[in-house]
Amino acid sequence: MTQEHARTPGRSAYRRLADQLDTHSDGYGPLRGTLGTGRMGMIWLAANLVVTTLLTGTLFVPGVTWPMAVAMIVLGTLIGGSVLVLVGNMGTRTGLATMSLTKGSFGLRGSFLPVAANLVTLMGWSWVQAMLAGVTVNFVVEEMTGFSSPVLFSVLCQLLVVCLAIFGHAGIERVEPWLALVILVFMAYIFITAFLAYSPAEFAAIPQDTAAGWTPAVVLDVVIATAISWTVLSAEFNRLARTQAAGMIGSGVGYVLSTVLAMVLGATAIGFVVLDGGDAVAFDPTVIVAIFGAPLAVVIFLSVMATNTMVVYGMVSSVVNMVTSRRVTFLPTALVLGAVSILGATWLALLDRFAAFLTVVGALFIPVFAVMLVDYYLVRSRHYNSDILRGRGGAYWFTGGVNIAAVLVWLVGAGTSLFLTYTVPSPIGATIPTFVLSALLYLGWAAATGRIDRTARKHTHLLDEPEVAADHAHR
């Protein structure tokens, strides 16, 4: 859009805003990254230093012992983080967002299925985070004035998030790493306070509450599912990396460090509550705010605003990148999804079902990412060509635009995950068997149908392909 076009008399304020946002949004197609290792590490460090990750750690103690919770947090983060890094690297190599990459394995139309699941997942995250911010604000306001309306404050928080996603997401991206440093300082304060009051041995001696229903395998599943839930945005972030090394090292270190710190802090904070004679009320920010003070409430609120803004922006980006039509534009998509996210912020009962929500996320996306990784790294020999940007036809059309085999593997994998979670619990959890089964099924189908490509190719970013470069130059 030219400046002359933007200033054309008679154009409505809505139209001018829509054109400006389309000009500055990611839009459809690949991007070439420019960020180095340190900047990528800070993005991932900031992204997961959020109240939801911290409060996830409060779910585990005293359901399992504090040392076991810490061990499963570290192990699960390393396992889930490996998937996140590999999917993110696909974004660095191609320049495409995560859901755009599903077109390579699920088909140009079959990818609409994981995109729909992604919208549900991100919408759920936006609701949960808005509610947590609202509950925290309500707690502080009630303490000061006696007025209480958690639903009202949840809606107001999400309304602010939607406005930031539309108008200020670029600014949030710049501010978020600095906010991460503030959060790290406050996390250090909580750790110091906790361990000055009680020794690690006292935390380790907290009696396990077997009635809570937690086992090491269930904790491991939830931690891995947390990584999987972030993987839906991993290529969005990592396609901003200048090199593969910058993306993989930055995201790996940033994600693992932030998740382990936040979850262990949650487990430690709730352990501190127990040792201090309080009730272990999991996934409730007011419990730890009451102990560690109003500054923690401010940090929770700001971290939710920053992270949830990028979650809402990620939803919009997924839809805009879903189809090649330029008629699917940023502003109307943001307004529709924003309205749904604001309405959903009134459903406070979802907070009581957060562990079940993570379980569903894992069931939906573990097989998706297993299929994606096998398809790209093993079947396609780490290469997607420009056909992935087409609306129909080409190498990723399969049968009517749908790779039926990928969809079937997805259904089998999701069913297996739910079966191993709720019907016949697996001693090693559901996520690892689900991933392995889904990967082997898809690889077996590719081998049986002769689809494995062993051609050695020099790596080429999609923007380096002549037809794609010409199209972008024309724009």
From TrEMBL:
GO molecular function terms attached to this record: cytosine transmembrane transporter activity
UniProt entry tagged with the keyword Transmembrane helix: yes
One GO location term (cellular component): plasma membrane
Membrane topology: Multi-pass membrane protein
Key words of the record: Membrane, Transmembrane, Transmembrane helix
Keyword hit for Transmembrane helix: yes
Pfam family, one: Transp_cyt_pur
Compartments (UniProt record): Membrane
Superkingdom as given in the UniProt entry: Bacteria
InterPro entries the UniProt entry points to: CodB, Pur-cyt_permease
Record-stated family: Belongs to the purine-cytosine permease (2.A.39) family.
Name of this chain's protein: Purine-cytosine transporter
Species whose genome carries this gene: Arthrobacter echini
UniProt lineage: Bacteria, Bacillati, Actinomycetota, Actinomycetes, Micrococcales
